[in-house]
């Protein structure tokens, strides 16, 4: 790659939660070039919806079009990486592995993540959490997330894992408040990180949490410091979904790497 630092988590219109008229590769790369930072386009690849939702950007084999487009753009911008943020679902491990067998070697960077334990109820969307709370208590929602995360790590399908505690984007003391019986401790998050380390899985330091009521990265600076000291391999991502946020995040991305590199 051309530059010293890389933002490993950027989304374009190829991601399902961005409008079709949203930013494309070159929109980001022009900004990245002027700020001397590499970009990995870590597009959402939710296998359940790729198979069942005709409106999903990757529906009906469009992964081939994505790879063709990004390979062409890489001919001009040698600081661009192709990537996928693949959702993990318990019970769909075989399907994920089959996809990776077919396409894993064609993609520069792949990371696993969990956005929903209950299909059609993403925990990264506040209104869906509210709806899900009508079906199950908040403790169960949190426990399901951490149990699914452990299953994902132990499956060893992925070499990289995104935002290991993103469940707390909206479920936190400043927004949707957990009940007293919920385990929201730093130890629980740290244990997930240590499980990644024990399985030789890289952990994302996701800066997007600074946009939300919790006002901290996923995981926190304290936890990521602890994990780095214990030998964790860390990559940094802005989780950008628009150009303005990406522009504003570049300095923070560089500062995060500088901080991590100084940890002994």
Structural description of this entry:
The protein has 264 residues and is α/β, with parallel strands linked by helices. The chain has a single domain (6-261), classed as Metal-dependent hydrolases (TIM Barrel, Alpha-Beta Barrel). Helices cover 41% and strands 14% of the residues. It is built from nine helices and seven strands. It has helices spanning 25-35, 47-52, 63-76, 93-103, 126-132, 138-155, 186-198, 221-229, 243-261; strands spanning 6-10, 38-45, 80-87, 109-113, 160-161, 202-206, 234-237. The protein has a four-stranded parallel beta sheet with strand order 1-2-3-4. Strands 5-6-7 form a three-stranded parallel beta sheet. Helix 6 (138-155) packs parallel to helix 7 and helix 7 (186-198) packs parallel to helix 8 (221-229). The longest helix has 19 residues, at 243-261. The relative contact order is 0.14. The model has no long low-confidence stretch (mean pLDDT 97).
């Amino acid at each position: 790659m051309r530059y010293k630092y890389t933002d490993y988590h950027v989304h374009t219109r190829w991601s399902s939660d961005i409008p079709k008229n949203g930013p494309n590769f070159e929109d980001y790369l022009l900004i990245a070039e002027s700020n001397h930072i590499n970009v990995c386009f870590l597009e959402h690849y939710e296998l359940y919806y790729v198979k069942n939702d005709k409106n999903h950007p990757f529906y009906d084999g469009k992964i081939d079009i994505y790879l063709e487009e990004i390979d062409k753009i890489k001919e001009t911008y040698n600081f661009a990486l192709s990537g996928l943020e693949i959702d993990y679902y318990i019970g769909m491990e075989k399907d994920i592995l089959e996809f990776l067998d077919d396409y894993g070697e064609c993609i520069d960077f792949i990371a696993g993540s969990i956005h929903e334990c209950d299909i059609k109820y993403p925990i990264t969307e506040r209104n869906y959490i509210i709806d899900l709370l009508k079906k199950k208590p908040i403790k169960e929602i949190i426990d399901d997330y951490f149990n699914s995360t452990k299953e994902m790590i132990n499956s060893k399908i992925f070499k990289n894992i995104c935002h290991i505690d993103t469940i707390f984007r909206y479920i936190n003391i400043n927004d949707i408040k957990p009940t007293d019986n919920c385990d929201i401790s730093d130890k629980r998050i740290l244990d997930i990180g240590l499980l990644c380390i024990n399985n030789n899985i890289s952990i994302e330091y996701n800066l997007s949490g600074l946009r939300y009521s919790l006002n901290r990265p996923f995981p926190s600076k304290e936890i990521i410091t602890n994990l780095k000291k214990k030998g964790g391999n860390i990559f940094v991502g802005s989780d950008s979904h628009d150009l303005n946020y990406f522009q504003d995040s570049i300095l923070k991305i560089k500062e995060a790497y500088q901080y991590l590199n100084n940890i002994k």
